[in-house]
Amino acid sequence: MPFPILRTSFVVLSEIISLLEPNEIVTASLCSKKLRRLLKNHHQRRKPLKWRLSMFSWGLVDIMTRTVRNRINVIMARHISELPGEAHKSIEFNGYKGTFDQGYPTLYFQDLVFGTTMVVDYVTDLFSLDIHGLIIDRNGMWAFDWINNRQEKLLGGMGLGKNPTYALNEDKTLGTVLMIRNASSSDCVRINEKLGPPDVVLFDNSRWLTYDHLVKMDSIKLFVDRCSLSELDLNSFLRYWRAGGSPRLAYLRVGFENRDTLSGNFDQDLEVVEINEVRRFRVVAEEDAEEIQGDYSIQRWDGVEATISFKYRYFTMVVWHTDENRLSLPSYNSRQN
């Protein structure tokens, strides 16, 4: 029996599809080949420019629709051993069993790597999107080779591929996003060697990270969590930055395991100035405006300034590039002591 939606006029149909969330579209596309073709054709004509697709090496695919707070899981691959019992409703798709228990389809495979690549290919084809972000664990290094081969024409030596929708301001873009969980230092060396420096890097559980790793990650935005760097390491990095190192850096956020690491003791040659000001900027996506409550200001050799903040166990540094090609500045508010 044909779906009633397939008999709807094109204009009305486009409006209906535009109201659906990404996970709803993926779920609907599995219902029939005709509906999948209809949804695919719609997104080929009206590509969702602000959507950014991320792949997790353990099988999950999500889409960021507006900001980092608007991430929606759309499909997942899992090993067949994790398939629930008969009490759960299951479906079949191309011969693979699946469930819809979490608001998005989950398909089960004997080979999880094969299943992960299959669901990623399915979603990227459905929405006409490239892989924009990659999140891996220590078992997910295979994903680098796969993406590098899959998007070879788009990499251009940059790594994960250029995506013009990752906007920092009206006409500037970011291309590569990488998140690494529980990885080793040797894994990260391989990342730079094989893919080049990603524009955005997020390190989770990075107790292994040293000063040398920090200066070798030539990224625009770098997030490091649960590290064991010392205040001496931070002073060394600031000295390196002042001399012209990490020239692309626009945002650095370092979270420490030991909250007593940060005391605000800077070496005198860094010429750090104490301030009290608030500045707004965009961290990741186009609509993600955030504020930094500045505690200190530091200047690079060429006059470029950066704001430093110590909050709880976090060190945050925002670099105000003069060409504004790193962070947009929606507003500025200075407060005097």
Describe the protein:
It is a single chain. This protein folds into 2 domains: 1-129, no CATH class; 134-337, no CATH class. The protein has 9 helices and 16 strands. A hairpin with a 6-residue loop joins strand 12 (273-282) and strand 13 (289-299). It is an alpha/beta fold and 337 residues long.
Could you give the distance between the termini?
Answer: 72 Å
Largest pleated sheet = 16 strands, mixed
Summing up helix and strand content along with how strands pair, one would put the structural category as: alpha/beta
Helix-strand sequence? HHHEEEEEEHEHHEHEHEHEEEEEE
**Can you count the beta strands?**
16
Count the DSSP helices: 9
Helix content: 25-40%
Characteristic terms for this protein:
elongated, alpha/beta, 2 domains, 16 strands, disordered C terminus, 337 residues
Strand-helix topology:
Elements: H1 10-18, H2 22-29, H3 33-45, E1 52-56, E2 60-64, E3 71-79, E4 90-93, E5 96-99, E6 106-109, H4 112-127, E7 131-136, H5 142-150, H6 152-155, E8 177-181, H7 185-195, E9 200-204, H8 211-216, E10 221-227, H9 231-242, E11 251-256, E12 273-282, E13 289-299, E14 305-311, E15 314-320, E16 332-334
Parallel strand pairs: 1-7, 3-6, 7-8, 8-9, 9-10, 10-11
Antiparallel strand pairs: 1-2, 2-3, 4-5, 5-6, 11-15, 12-13, 12-16, 13-14, 14-15
Helix pairs in contact: 2-3
